[in-house]
Amino acid sequence: MRHLGGKVAVVTGAASGIGRGLARRFGAEGMSVVVADVEPAALDETAALIREAAGVEVLAVRTDVSDPDAVESLAARTYERFGAAHVVCNNAGVFQGGFLWERTEADWDWVFGVNVYGIIHGIRSFVPRMLEQGGDGHVVNTASIAGLVTSGYSGPYSVSKFAAVALSESLAHDLRASNASIGVSVLCPSAVNTRIGESTRNRTGPVPSEVDAPDAHFVEQALRDLTARGLEPDAVAGMVVDAIRAGQFYIPTNASYDEQIRSRFDDMVGRRLPRMVAYD
Predict the structure, then answer these.
(1) How many domains does the chain have?
(2) Domain holding 234: CATH number?
(3) Is residue 153 within 8 Å of residue 101, measured between CB atoms?
(4) How many Cα atoms are found within 13 Å in the side-chain-facing hemisphere of 20?
(5) pTM for the full model?
């Protein structure tokens, strides 16, 4: 999908971070942009930034991607307003770390609701409409380098991101088997300067494990320190646009992980536990 100008992009998790970077870049490419997030004030700020910088049409829709009805409403409003969606970025994500045995069912439901079901709901609501509209399209799912290699203290997040990678591969195979002209990419960022380490700011419902969870707080602080030194979201957005145009499936943001990925598969073939990764 080489030509983006005049088309329509949808980005979830667009109120900040990578999502805002993606939305701004799509606007700069001359696309109409639908931005979605659970933070209404920051979402409206994203929309205003795009309108001011690019002068394109922007639709802002408050959306909890863990709610299938909310994502279906997002798709319906997109098609009511623009009649199409050409690039859909299932980007919303949250972080939950700490020891696996310390995490509650509510912790798992929260991280999977956003990181896994958010993608599933996006696929179910947008892909059938994209197939019906015909023509070229592209779906970008945001996973993580933690969906390709593992480390300690971040099991729930890593498990959800491995699922995001598998979802993306499966979607690509299904679309290819259907002879659809819809491409798929999976974004696997390493450290990016975002607020992922503050994910609990948007968490609703019970948060029982946080009261006495020094392991979770430790890893969240480490993540905040790491992301503060990371790439800027606009740089990642440029990589995504290049990948869409090239039809590239995997979008890593740091080539330094290539050797660790090779090492993981060598360990798998050798029937060994893959070595623990030190993220950078």
Answers:
(1) 1
(2) 3.40.50.720
(3) no
(4) 18
(5) 0.93
